[in-house]
Fold these 3 entries.
Entry 1:
Amino acid sequence: MLDRDLGRHTPYMSQPEYRIYQLNKRLQNWTEECDNLWWDSFTAEFFEDDAILTVACCLEDGPKRYTIGRTLIPRYFRSIFDGGATDLYFNLKHSKESFHGNLVILDCDLCSMVTLHSKPIFTKVCTEGRLYLEFTFDDLMRIKNWHFNIRQNRELLSRSILATHAQDPPMLEQLSNSITRSGLSNFTLNYLRLCVILEPMQELMSRHKTYNLSPRDCLKTCLFQKWQRMVAPPAEPVRPPTAKRRKRKQSGGNVATVGASSTSSGASKRKSSPATGFSLSTQILHAMHHS
């Protein structure tokens, strides 16, 4: 779409729901042969480089909240299929759109995440909740913040399957067991729990890969940098330079006094200079090197 006044490409104004439609369509292309590169490409198309994904649900032991960064998002979507799903899509009803700065916000209180499972028997899982999305207001229209708050879920079976096993009590007992917990498979929940441990270690793993340091040295370096940020004094505001005053000529005695005082102050500065060149950070680096 071209802006007639500016003569340049402008972003669409009402694209969030269409982007979810495109996301669903891309997920329909999934096959068992899709590897990590396919999931990385999928995530790069729909998520910003600094995107955050949050899933909140209530399990048997209480409410849970899992937040992961951009590098772990591809494996999250892949875990849904690795957990037994053969299809995944999102249904939005009565969603609301708004603008906040350079973000387009989509808030849907009636969102349903639908997954289809073929094992152990064909099951349709509808996970309902509130989906809150923040899109960047540009040509790519990618997601910066994904927050899905799960309220309830339903697992639907075909009537014909129940009729077929009506005279088989053990099979009926097996069919009565849920295959998900709060709409998420055990595979996905275990991955999210693992992400809680892995997310703080991303900085260590990145430093190890970049500088080829040992895990011990990576930890020392990260802790030292965090300590530096904690003890660093706040930046002082820049003060405008003061205008220099012209000095009046003094008598001979006063000049001698000023010269003596300046000489003594210079000597005191020279005496104190070695202490200023030996900072606390130098001591810590020296201790870390010998430890």
Note: The CA atoms of residues 269 and 276 lie 10 Å apart.
Entry 2:
Amino acid sequence: MLDSLKVMKIYSAVLCFSLVVTSNSGAIPKDDHDKRVFDKELSDIEHGNDDTHNPEYDHESFLGKEEAKTFDQLTPEESKSRLAIIVKKIDKDNDGFVTEDELKNWIKYVMKRYIYQDTERQWKEHEVKGDVLEWETYKDKTYGFITTDEDGKPTSEDTAGSYDKMVTRDEKRWKRADENGDGKLTKEEFANFLHPEEVDHMKEIVVEETMSDIDKDKDGYITLDEYIGDMWPNKDNEDEPDWVKNERENFANYRDKNKDGKMDANEVKDWILPADYDHSDAEAKHLMGESDVDKDGKLTHEEIIEKYDLFVGSQATDFGEALTKHDEF
């Protein structure tokens, strides 16, 4: 067995390698267990229940995470003023009311705006030839800072394994996104490469990557031990916290649908890409229920402004691009 010093050396090297790769490009990092569920939430913040509701969840869902952050210092008057501009954009038919569908469509737009902005940012970081990005160009930009030998292998043994795994994963996802098989990606295909959970033909690669991460014995299934080990390695042999015990129950009651003690690919897909719950719809219903004072099933602009703290609080957004540019919403 490796002694503890050796283990720490390898762990540190791999950690540094992963951080450098992630900060230098759009390389595909290994997701944390609690972030594997792609349709899990509209925000990383806990939503809470009716008794412990967290308004920051509503703010990020309605505004977008980055935009909400930039307006922590707005006064209530500034928040209301900016919210009034947004309400007019949400009211697509200009009838003076915001319906639940209009609210839902806005929340979905906020979610998709991040994908668009992220794709644009990363597209500009690469040397695009014409209107396509070649695999070798992407690979060189993403991993070119790593010292390799004449065969293209990392000279550091500590990073070789991680390097090979990440390049292999990137290339496999690249080929799946490359619909015409020419080795190049258009901007739309590049968006699918970066955010495969958003398009049907890419969702299987998300499942495959998750299986690859968690299925340690490579038998094509995720056992309870592998599931728990991914979220809580427990290298220090500590007492199991309650949330881990709850995850054991979730595995038995919800994840393992056929009750054979393990998850197959279909069960993993149901877990990380749930199709039976629409968070945008649920959030729209929540905001509507909290704001619709006269219970007529629609919101006046005044009702929304009156409840500004629910929608934006002191974290209203300027919606910089949404307000100053002619976007598609």
Note: The longest helix spans residues 100-125.
Entry 3:
Amino acid sequence: MNQASTRSHCVFTIHVTGKEMGSAKIRRSRLNLVDLAGSERVAKTNINGTLLQEAKYINLSLHYLEQVIVALSEKNRSHIPYRNSMMTSVLRDSLGGNCMTTMIATLSAETKNIDESISTCRFAQRVAMIKNDAILNEEIDPQLLIGRLKRENQELKNQLTVIQGEPLTDPLTDAEAEECKAKVNAFLDDNDPEGSIDVGSDLRKVALCFRILKGYLRDAKRELDQRSKHVAPGPEATPGSAYDSKEVEQLKLLLVQRDNEINILVKMLKKEKQKNAAAGTPPTEYREYEDTSSQKSSGSDRNLLESREARPLREERPPAAMAKKKPVVEKRAVRE
């Protein structure tokens, strides 16, 4: 505290500010590290000149500090003499304010310094008698408070505009347009199904948000159309695609053709059974019909389908019945 002297008190102050994430409260604290210069008895040191003046000032400041400590230790004391010296004024909050004070006293073990050691112990004892109830220094962040008041002011303006029925015609500023765009993007990125866009009662901002959403939707449809043109249709093509309009029609026609062929085959089998029943001959194996039909229409697709359909009939007949039918088949073949 005295730059012109090497023997002076030194005070090192640290200011600490803390804030939790997502909280509007700020905690402030101050740490004072004080290095007090040692008192000395002029009668023992026999100093003079500048050193004598420095020793007087040091002893006087320590005397004022002791007065403040004695006054704080007395519960019924109403006045505390903080203004007696600059050091007591600086340490006002560290001594009697919302603080916790700790003192470390150094002593001399030599016999010639016993008086100074006793005086230091008494001084430390008086400091230990000071009792303060320290609480946290919490306050609301002024920037957050200002922002909240601005939002409330804007909300009141919007409500007044709605009540009076006076629509705003002034164009939005660039900052307001960017704010609306940021709110729309936050709304689209939010996974909450009950999320909303809070732009107040300003119809200009509402219209701008709808235009931004419309632009996003149009871009997404355009990109989807471009992808559908470049991607080849697969087996699971959606209705209305090229695969559904052409390939499915061809498959339907082929299915109808195969149904007609199967119906013709069934009718021919029924006629053959009726003919055999009228002639009094047992039903012949389908192989002979396959042979005769192949002679009449060789190489046709219908014979191929008939042979495929007739194989289960041949497999279901027992071997004995097939052996008995062979002579009849040969005779009939000869007649034909």
Note: The CA atoms of residues 286 and 310 lie 6 Å apart.
